[in-house]
């Protein structure tokens, strides 16, 4: 187990966070416990301190961040210079927009609180797809569902990063 400023990382805490998130902004793949365990081996833990920027608007990286604990905020600067905000909490994810589109990031994401996160890079997802295609498909469908729900909810659209 990795130690972090936010305590010990426990992948099963991420699974519990997805189960306990009862909002429409949840990342909840339909995976059996054993499949979650396999999926967890493809993720890397990340501790984020309050104020730390994880994603910068217009950046080209495609990492997805799954939130075990804490709150992230999403900031989007539009053409008039106004900033719109969204909060994303434990049991959800950010970064799914660029992950799928391969386009630059639509917004900046930073930790509003100390956070425990799990990262999924495109390279690790490709490995998962090759070795465990059923799990990869379910993860992709759950991320796609998250994108769809956010796009259908105008105030949450900014959260598609």
Q: CATH architecture, please?
A: Sandwich
Order of helices and strands: EEHHEEEEEEHEEHH
Gyration radius, rounded: 15 Å
Helix content: 25-40%
Mean pLDDT rating: 91
- Share of β-strand residues: 25-35%
Strand order of the largest sheet: 3-10-5-8
CATH topology group: Jelly Rolls
Provide key terms for this protein.
4-stranded antiparallel beta sheet, 5 helices, disordered N terminus, globular, Jelly Rolls, alpha+beta
Explain what this protein looks like in three dimensions.
The protein has 161 residues and is an alpha+beta fold. The protein has a single domain (3-156), classed as Jelly Rolls (Sandwich), CATH 2.60.120. It has helices spanning 11-20, 33-40, 96-101, 122-131, 133-152, and strands at residues 3-4, 7-8, 44-48, 53-55, 64-69, 71-77, 83-89, 93-94, 108-111, 115-120. α4 crosses α5. The longest helix is centred in the last third of the chain and has 20 residues, at 133-152. It is globular, with a radius of gyration of 15 Å. It starts with a strand and ends in a 9-residue tail after the last helix. The relative contact order is 0.23. The model is unreliable at 1-6 (pLDDT under 50).
How are the SSEs placed, and which strands pair?
Elements: E1 3-4, E2 7-8, H1 11-20, H2 33-40, E3 44-48, E4 53-55, E5 64-69, E6 71-77, E7 83-89, E8 93-94, H3 96-101, E9 108-111, E10 115-120, H4 122-131, H5 133-152
Antiparallel strand pairs: 1-2, 3-10, 4-9, 5-8, 5-10, 6-7, 6-9
Helix pairs in contact: 4-5
């Amino acid at each position: 187990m990795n130690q972090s400023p936010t305590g010990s990382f426990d992948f099963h805490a991420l699974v519990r966070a997805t189960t306990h998130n009862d909002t429409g902004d949840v990342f909840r793949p339909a995976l059996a416990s054993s499949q979650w365990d396999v999926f967890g081996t493809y993720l890397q833990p990340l501790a984020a301190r309050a104020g730390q920027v994880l994603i910068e608007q217009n950046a080209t990286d495609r990492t997805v961040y799954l939130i075990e604990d804490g709150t992230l905020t999403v900031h989007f600067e539009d053409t008039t210079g106004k900033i719109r905000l969204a909060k994303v909490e434990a049991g959800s994810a950010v970064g799914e927009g660029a992950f799928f589109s391969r386009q630059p990031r639509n917004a900046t994401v930073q930790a509003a609180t100390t956070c425990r996160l799990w990262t999924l890079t495109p390279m690790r997802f490709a490995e998962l797809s090759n070795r465990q295609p059923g799990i990869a498909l379910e993860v992709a469908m759950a991320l796609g569902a998250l994108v769809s729900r956010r796009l259908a909810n105008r105030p949450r659209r900014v959260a598609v990063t």
